[in-house]
Amino acid sequence: MTLQKGLFPNNPTMFIDYLFSSPDGDIPLGPQDLARPFLMAPSEPHPFLTLGDYFETIKRFVLKDGGNCLINGLEAMAIGENDLDTIKRIRIRSEKHGVLYHVASVEIFVDDRPVKFAVSTAVSSEAKSCLTNEYEIVKSLYRSLRPSYLPKIYEKGDTICQGGHPPYETLTLMLSEWFEDYHEWHFSMDVADNRQKICIWDLEKGHRYASEEEAFEIFRQASRILTLYYDPHTFKQITPWSHAAGDFVVKTWDGGIHVKLTTARGYRSIMDFFSEEAVHPMIARVYFFLNLTVRMRLDRLNGVEETVWAGDFIVQAVAEGFFEALGIMGGKGMPTSNETQECLSLLQSLAEDDLERLFKPLLSLYQEDSPDEFHVIHANLKGHVGSLCRTIQGFRL
């Protein structure tokens, strides 16, 4: 559906398109599509809001106050000075309906140059609370590390979703940076050889399976990113995060793989779960690493099906990413290079039985967080410990 924006007298030629994103390209939405119920979940229609109400709310959110949030975003990207008059076309595209949020892209055209932003929308009370918390965490972490692997946040606010008549719903929306040409990925079974592989969901060039080298690099970089955001003083880390939720995205560029993190829903220390007493920083760092080696191996097949456990190659990838990040942090004085070597030496001093004992508190955490994932972890833990022990024994800085 294309709307001419007569509602903006200063820019009567602005057009707005409402679209669905699909592997086969954009799907334009007509009046019949927009009249359908707005789905809060795949099988849960909203009591009274339509799909058109959802798109209209995003439109009002990004164009309010003369489109200031879009203009601020353009200036942050050094795309010159702009105002609403320079924007000739806007494409609002429904990209993804997650467990908590609905994600859309807002593509604007300034002098025929396309620029994309992301809009996350929360409907339920729980989702609104989570999005507000996420807004504060991502803004803080974005400033803490350069270059940032998290998106820049431009705006957050509540907007009344006005249907044709009362009742009305107030939605919480957040405008942020769109990682252009970055794609979600998940484990999938390749029917050609019946092997579990990473499938990169490239909606422009088509889905494809990552090579073994690319898969290794995805996990190495994801582990590096999470470690760089780990605070060695407070033991705070980005948690929860999930491959199943598509938190890490990947771009193939200049012959290499580049990974970014789309969000940070929480930032806390998992050591608080184990003990109320003071914890030695080295012990906290070891637990961060152990937890990382397990969490990296979990995904849902094709993003939505059963929980799967990835291959042993991930253990080496996690170790490389973790220690590379510690080396970078050591260059900034936290932790020191000596502490990085001490961490490796401590891990190398542990036998398989020692590692199994260290994992016991983590098992309680996994069981509390997700019973489904806990069963998969528990069934594979012994083999994981063996692989981890062998990897660490052969690891060199």
What would you say this structure looks like, in words?
- This protein has 397 residues and is of the alpha+beta class.
- The radius of gyration is 23 Å and the shape is globular.
- The protein is built from ten helices and 19 strands.
- The protein has helices spanning 31-34, 51-76, 125-144, 212-228, 271-274, 281-295, 313-331, 337-348, 352-369, 371-393, and strands at 2-4, 15-20, 27-28, 37-41, 44-50, 87-97, 101-110, 113-122, 153-161, 169-177, 185-190, 195-200, 208-209, 237-238, 248-253, 256-261, 267-268, 298-300, 307-309.
- Strand 7 and strand 8 form a beta hairpin.
- Residues 4-9 have low confidence and may be disordered.
- Strands 1, 2, 3, 6, 7, 8, 9 and 10 form an eight-stranded mixed β-sheet that branches. Strands 11-12-13 form a three-stranded antiparallel β-sheet, with no helix packed on it.
- The protein is 40% helix and 27% strand.
- The relative contact order is 0.08.
- Helix 9 (352-369) runs antiparallel to helix 10 (371-393).
Beta-strand residue percentage: 25-35%
Mean pLDDT comes to 89
Report the radius of gyration as a whole number of Å. 23 Å
- Approximately how much helix is present in the residues? 25-40%
Secondary-structure element string = EEEHEEHEEEHEEEEEHEEEEHHEEHHHH
Strand pairing plus helix content: what structural class?
Answer: alpha+beta
Shape: globular
The largest sheet is: 8 strands, mixed
| Helix segment tally | 10
Distance between the termini: 57 Å
Q: Unreliable stretches, pLDDT < 50, 5 or more residues?
A: 4-9
How many beta strands in the DSSP annotation? Answer: 19
